[in-house]
Design brief:
single chain; 549 residues; mainly beta; nine-stranded antiparallel beta sheet; seven-stranded mixed beta sheet; 38 strands
Length: 549
């Protein structure tokens, strides 16, 4: 019956999808309060702005090499967030040379620390690509959940990161940015320059407005630019990612000099390194700050803190320390919604929660009309030591500190050595896959440490399985394995399990210590590969994936 409904739906316009509520993390307590983090997933370097309604908030975050890129999240109350789209379909459409660069996996490169702004009817996002320059993309019709134009490079060069524009009262535009030591060979300074009024090119030279070198404000980066009551404000983190704090600085000129103050720090709380995010002023006269906390393998999760301007400075949280539970922002909305995690694969589009490891190629995989998501085997280099450079992993962010992932899939193999299954991906990774060996399948646990450094992948045989089905034709027959796979996540560790009937699961040995990726948290999802360049591709048909307590 479910497959019949899918067929009917495919012949109709896409229906509105019901609001998704997570089983594993919902920050709205239902009593007028919320609990941080408001998004317990790796939306690192978040920035936020409010639209012309005064009550539609839009957030974006770093996406690095993953595509689609530049996630767009929407909220009506700054607590309940829904993932509604992406500003980038690929990196970077409209520039063939750059697109070709990101067609292969470029871990940790690409989109760093974006800022989102509303200006004269359109939304703009600026970010620094440390290898290519300052990039910008804007909406086509003023709808952040709709289509965005192809991105443009507004300043070419290396080392530019963490860029934010400010359109002043007189229409002039300024841009603040940080610098990546890995490319520029200097850091801990912020520069401001003037841009053309349309924000598409620099017309002034940069001026260093803040220098954290040799002080407790080392690693100052991630600046956000604002104007309030005649003062120019730059909000930026300093002191390092896991251990740092939030600075506010102010001046009567965009070019400084700026005086500064620490406005948010860990203090006596257990919330480390609270910093780097965006300030928003609501139509209800309230001020709030969204920022991240680095939780290692889980990535950089999003917190919400109130802002008190009574001293003339934006003191955040409770007297400068982050809150855990607090009164929700004033809002006319009572909707409870969270970014989607589970997926029935019943829509003719790939779910918003999924990203690839590089620019999408249709040979990676596509939705089917049968209520499944198909992921084809990627042709790996024969001398590949591990899965680090596989572009067609279909992955999503971890949504909580503790959760279970269960999926039903069929793996179809056309040749020996093809394998597919589920993976917890990071600098170290572990996967549970079925691999064809002759006319049978082996259930293997794959483990790799220091994948980014070329670490060798180890295989552990869990079971030998007879095929569930075999093609009874002479022309390129395949064999098939229907299987249920599970991962259990707790305390930054993952345990794998498997089942042939979906009810009785067998654990696969000891827990594996999860590890973050390059500038991102660990991600989980599907892997499908082989190393035979001449064989027809095999594939996973994923029927569903459920994220539960």
């Amino acid at each position: 019956m479910r497959k019949l409904l899918v067929t009917i739906l495919l012949g109709m316009p896409l229906l509105a999808i019901a609001q998704y509520r997570s089983e594993v993390w919902c920050p709205d307590n239902g009593d007028g309060t919320y609990t941080n983090p408001v998004i317990n997933a790796d939306y690192s370097d978040p920035d936020v702005c409010v639209g012309p309604s005064g009550e539609d908030y839009y957030m974006t975050a770093s996406s690095f090499q993953c595509t689609p890129g530049l996630p767009i999240l929407h909220s009506r109350d700054l607590v309940n967030w829904e993932l509604v789209g992406y500003a980038l379909k690929s990196l970077y459409a409209g520039d063939d040379k750059l697109t070709a660069h990101f067609n292969s996996v470029q871990h940790g490169n690409g989109v760093w620390a974006p800022s989102i702004r509303y200006h004269e009817g359109q939304y703009y996002i600026y970010w620094g690509d440390p290898d290519f320059g300052v990039m910008m993309v804007k909406t086509k019709n003023g709808d952040p959940a709709g289509e965005w134009e192809d991105p443009i490079c507004v300043i070419k060069g290396q080392g530019y990161i963490d860029t934010t524009p400010l359109w002043d009262d007189d229409g002039r535009c300024y841009l603040v940015n940080g610098w990546a030591n890995s490319r520029a060979k200097f850091a801990s300074v912020l520069t401001v320059r003037e841009m053309s009024k349309d924000g598409t090119r620099a017309i002034g030279q940069p001026v260093i407005v803040f220098d954290g070198n040799g002080t407790e404000n080392r690693t100052c980066e991630g600046p956000k630019f604002y104007k309030r009551d005649g003062w120019y404000w730059i909000l930026c983190p300093a002191g390092g990612v896991p251990t740092g704090f939030q600075l506010a600085m102010r001046s009567k000129s965009p070019y400084g000099p700026y005086e500064h103050k620490v406005v948010l720090a860990q203090g006596k709380t257990n919330i480390n390194g609270p910093h780097q995010g965006g300030w928003v002023y609501t139509k209800y006269g309230e001020d709030w700050f969204l920022h991240f906390q680095d939780k290692e393998a889980y990535g950089r999760v999003v917190h919400l803190n109130p802002v008190d301007w009574s001293t003339g400075w934006p003191i955040m949280g409770k007297k400068g320390e982050p809150v855990t539970t607090y009164k929700k922002p004033a809002s006319s909305s009572n909707i409870i919604v969270n970014p989607a995690e589970s997926d029935e694969f019943d829509q003719p589009v790939i779910g918003m929660q999924w990203q690839w490891q590089a620019n999408y190629d249709e040979k990676f995989g596509v939705p089917t009309a049968f209520g499944t998501m198909r992921i084809y085997t990627h042709k790996m280099a024969e001398d590949a030591k591990n899965l680090w450079l596989v572009p067609n992993m279909l992955l999503q962010k971890t949504p909580a500190d503790e959760f279970n992932v269960t999926t039903k899939l069929r793996f179809t193999s056309k040749a020996d050595g093809q394998m597919g299954g589920i993976i917890m991906m990071g600098l170290d990774y572990q996967a549970l896959v079925v691999k064809r060996v002759g006319k049978e399948f082996q259930l293997l646990k794959l483990t790799c440490h220091k994948a980014d450094k070329g670490g060798a992948q180890e295989e552990e045989l869990i079971a030998t399985l007879k095929p569930t089905a075999e093609d009874k034709i002479d022309y390129k027959p395949g064999i098939h394995e229907d299987i249920f796979l599970m991962m259990k996540v707790k305390d930054s560790q993952v345990k794998f399990a498997w089942s042939l009937d979906g009810s009785t699961f067998k654990l696969c040995g000891d827990a594996f210590k999860m590890r973050e990726g390059k500038w991102i948290g660990a991600k989980f999802g599907y892997v499908s590969v082989d190393s035979n360049p001449k064989s027809d591709r095999g594939w996973i048909d994923a029927d569903w994936i459920h994220i539960t307590k």
